[in-house]
Amino acid sequence: MFDSTRLVLFITAAVLLAIAPGPGMLYVLARSLAGGKREGVLSAFGTFLGGMVHVFAAALGISIILAKSAIAFATVKYAGAAYLCVLGVRMIVDARKDSGELVVQDVMPKRNPLWQGVATEVLNPKTALFFLSFIPQFVVRTNGHVFLQFVALGTISVALNTTADLVVIALAGPLGEKIRSSAVFRRRQRTATGVIMIGLGTYLATSESK
Questions:
Q1: Alpha helices in the chain (DSSP H)
Q2: Which pTM was predicted?
Q3: 78: which residues sit within 8 A by CB, 6+ positions away?
Q4: How far apart are alpha carbons 19 and 10 in whole angstroms?
Q5: What is the pLDDT of residues 121-135, one digit of tens each?
Q6: Do the Cβ atoms of 190 and 91 come closer than 8 Å?
Q7: What is the DSSP code (8-state) at residue 171?
């Protein structure tokens, strides 16, 4: 069902995005530092469920278009490839601006961390935009089962993000402090990921659309 080359590219990109410190990881870290590992784990699973809402919503809407229209399929892929390049540039620019200590604030620990994690992810429009732009790049239309391909790839991406969050929770002391206070660490992570996103977007835009 999947093209092996694109699947490898997808997993590589998804892993790099998962380990790059971002808002989701910092949210889970904040809950872990404020309420302990249990609260952090519940928050991580909350963001996982919220991410899956976006995956299924995007799959239901876009899979119909991609399955029936070759022109729409190509349009989505080129637009998504351009978005990956823009995302990479923004990561590099943001990394260069990151020069001070990052303060993780209290995130209302009295609320249920699981459902707050779900709400935080579901209400984030950038997550929806990311899935709509990123996942279609790796869907092989000619193989059929577009909806299942979309859901499978989306689940892998969300699961990798949650796995990275759980690692951060387990190492919340030393690793959390490094992520929060080391601007150099964050710059290198985001710059490397940004460069790879630009390269990936360029490759997908110039490769043959299937």
A1: 4-19, 23-35, 37-68, 70-97, 113-122, 125-134, 146-170, 174-181, 183-206
A2: 0.70
A3: 205, 209
A4: 14
A5: 887 767 777 787 788
A6: yes
A7: T
